[in-house]
Amino acid sequence: DLHLSLRRQRQMCIRDRVKFVMGTPLISDTFYPNRWDYFTTVTQGDSVYTQQKIILFFDENKLVKWEGEID
User: Fold this and answer.
1) Which helix (H) or strand (E) holds 40?
2) Which contiguous run of DSSP H or E holds residue 27?
3) Which residues, in sequence order, are CB contacts of 40 under 8 Å at separation 6+?
4) What is the pLDDT of residues 52-63, one digit of tens each?
5) Does this model's pTM top 0.85?
6) For residues 18 and 31, is the Cβ–Cβ distance under 8 A?
7) Which residues contact 2 (CB under 8 A, 6 or more apart)?
8) How far apart are CA 66 and CA 34, in angstroms?
9) Number of other residues whose CB lies within 10 A of the CB of residue 7
10) Residue 48 β-bridge partners
11) 13-61 pLDDT tens trace
12) Which of 10, 8, 6 minimizes the C-alpha distance to 64?
């Protein structure tokens, strides 16, 4: 479960480890380098089954908090 994985990562996590688990962030903003945005959508044809957004925040290369929910 990704939520549990993030919780574990938070305690021992550095950016490289997060990128290994989550993949490259959708948005890497040069003005906010300590914030990574991820967005996922599952669709089939015109039907949207899920849309999820999560924002990760780092301080001194460590994951310190996140916003959003992942099912």
Assistant:
1) strand 35-44
2) strand 27-28
3) 50, 51, 52
4) 899 999 998 888
5) no
6) no
7) 21, 22, 70
8) 11
9) 13
10) 43
11) 688 888 888 888 887 788 999 999 998 888 889 888 888 899 999 998 8
12) 10
Phi, psi for residue 58 in degrees, rounded to 5? -120, 150
Task: Work out whether strand 62-67 and strand 47-59 pair parallel, antiparallel, or are unpaired.
Answer: antiparallel
Question: By C-alpha distance, which of 30, 29, 48, 31 is closest to 40?
Answer: 48
Q: How many residues comprise the chain?
A: 71
CA dihedral 16, 12, 56, 44 (to 10 degrees): 70
Instruction: Output the pLDDT for position 12.
Output: 58
Q: Please count the other Cβ atoms lying within 10 Å of the Cβ belonging to residue 61.
A: 11
Q: Are 64 and 15 in contact (CB under 8 A)?
A: no
